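Why does residue order matter? Because the sequence determines the fold. Keep that principle in mind as you read this record.
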Amino acid sequence: MLTQHQAMPAIVPGDEKTFQRIREAKKFLLPARTCSASVTFKVSPGNSMDGFRWSEASSICFTYPYKLFVPRPSIRSLSPTRWIYPVVYGGGLVSGDNVCLILTCCKATSVLVTSQAFNKVYKAKANQITRQTNHFEIRQGALLSVLPDFIVCYAGANYSSSLKVYLGDELILREATILENFEDLTIADRMYQFEVFGILVLYGRSEVVRDLQGRVFTELSAREDFGIIPERENLFCTSLTADNVRVVRFICADSRAAYEKVDRLLSPLYKLYGGSPFYNKY
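Structure:
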């Protein structure tokens, strides 16, 4: 996931008291407009690759101004992956918007959630918050890739975003990010010269995912050749949790550098996808 904020936010580790304070404050922030969308993907007769079969949307619904584009190629490619584009009419989220996407990937399906361009969050009115919630359910043998463009929050925006991925009843990973100014330290001060931060999560037991985890670890753990000055404007680090979840955190000076690096890290999957979701975006 790539996230870019014009206000230059930062990742701030907070304790439980901080999270509780934010939850209490948000009780008084009301959404003005609610819209939702849902889609379920099931396998259909067609090509298969790496254990995944051709995926079709068996049910889809949405409410204005939220819309889901699921392109259907006139000729089925060798790739079994279906691409889906969540779109908000008007070019962004306005004050009080509350959008929710529910997506289900049935057994052996491969689905890529991406976007046509970066989304914008506009200035919030008093006592209003803009919310975006995604609920994804991945069933046995399915692959879900969530690779949207970055989010741009304008000055004065009040934005809350949550992403929940269900793999049964077990909690695999919990990640929290707090973006706000503190009394003695602003967001811009904490970000220093960086403008983009992001988190890339890789998890799965299939061969294609495990192979990608190994490739990512190998590239990010390699040292520069002798005599080459280490990179200081674009920083990437990776860690592996107890449940074999590969988490890549990065911070970059601009979106172009972030796109280039993530594009290269995920390139082994593009044959399965049928192309790169970052093509011609940087």
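The two ends are 16 Å apart (CA to CA).
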